[in-house]
Amino acid sequence: MTYQKLTRLSMYLTLAIIFSILESMIPINYMIPGIKLGCANIILVLVLYQYGIREALAIAVLRVILMGILRTGLFSVTFFFSLFGTLFSVISMYLTKKTHLSVIGVSIVGAIFHSIGQLLAAMLFLHLHMLIYYLPWMILGSIVTGMIIGYLSQYLLKQLEKTL
Amino acid sequence: MNKNDQTLIGCIVIICLLFIVTLNHSDHNVAVVYYKNEIIKKIDLSLDDIKEYQVNGENGIVTLEVNRGRIRVKDENSPLHLCSKQGYISKSTESIVCLPNKIVIQIEQNNDIDTVVK
Asked: Structural domains in chain A?
C-alpha cells in the first residue's frame, strides 16, 4: 500500500465519520420516520469506484466501529443496525457495479440494501417481524436518497478524475 | 442516469406499490361492534376469507359480512336501511351507525407496532 493510497483512504474515512456525525445532528423525520440521506454512502461509492471492494469494506466497517465508539456505543443494537446496513450496501453495490448500471443505479441499489440490512438486523435483534410491512416505504425512500447520493457521487468522481 | 437505471427504478417502484396496495388490505384492523354503547363483538379484519356474523340489535338480528379486510351490514331490520346501503368500510377512520338498531361498528387499529426504529 502506497503512502498516497493510505493518506487518501484515511481522508475518506475521516470524511465518512464527519458526514455521519453531521447527519445524526439533523433529524429529518419527514413522511417516513427514520429516513436519512446517508451522506457517508458517497464515500463508499467513491472508494468502491476508485479502489475496490476490499478498501470499501474496510472503510465501511471502520466507520461503523468508530461511530460506535464515538456515538452509539460499541456492540449496541444500533451498532449492529449500522453494521448490517453497511455490509449489505457495500456488497450489493459491488455486485451491481459489474452490470450495465451507472453510478446512480449502483447507488440506489446500495441505498435499498442498506434499508434491507437494517430491517433484517431489527427483525433479528428486536424480533419486530411486523417491520416487514414497512419495507416498501423504506425502499421508496431509498430510491430518492440513493438517486441524490448517486448524482453527487457521479459529479465528485468526474471532478476527482480531473484533479487527482 | 442511463436507460438501465430508469428501468431498474421503474421496476422497483412498481413492485413496492404493489406490495403497499396488497399489504394495506391486511392492515390488522379490528372491527368493534357496539350495542347500546357496549362492546359486544370484536372482529379481526385481517383474516382473508368471507365470513358472516350475526349480532342482536334493537329490531332483531343484524347480519354483518366481512370480506377481505372490509366489513358491511348485510341485512338488518330498520325503516330506511341506511347502514346496509352504506356498504363496505375498511379504514380506521370509518364507521357504520345503525341508529334504529342501536348498533355502531367502528374500525380500530390493532396497535401492536408502536416501536419506531431510528
From this structure: 3-163 (1.10.1760.20)
Structure letter (DSSP) for residue A162: H
pLDDT in tens, A4-38: 899 999 999 999 999 988 887 776 655 566 677 88
Sketch out chain B's domains with CATH numbers: 28-109 (2.60.320.10)
* Binary contact (A34, B116; C-beta < 8 A): yes
Q: How many residues can be counted in chain A?
A: 164
Is B26 in a helix, a strand, or coil? Answer: coil
Q: Is B64 exposed, middle or buried (0-12, 13-18, 19+ CB in 10 A)?
A: buried
Distance CA A12, CA A66 (A): 13
Which residue is listed with cell 434491507?
A: A116
Chain-centroid distance of CA A18 in Å reads 13
CB-CB neighbors (< 8 A) of A122 in chain B: 117
Picking from A100, A139, A150, the nearest residue to B12 by CB comes out as A139
pLDDT, mean of residues A79-104:
91
Check CB contact under 8 Å for B4 and A101. Answer: yes
| Per-residue pLDDT at A55 exceeds 80 | yes
Q: Does B39 touch chain A (CB under 8 A)?
A: no
For residue B5, list chain A residues with Cβ-Cβ distance below 8 A: 101-102, 104-105, 108
Contact state of B113 with A102 under an 8 Å Cβ cutoff = no
| ipTM of the complex, rounded to two decimals | 0.75
Q: Taking residues B53-67, what's their average pLDDT?
A: 87
pLDDT at residue A91 tops 70: yes
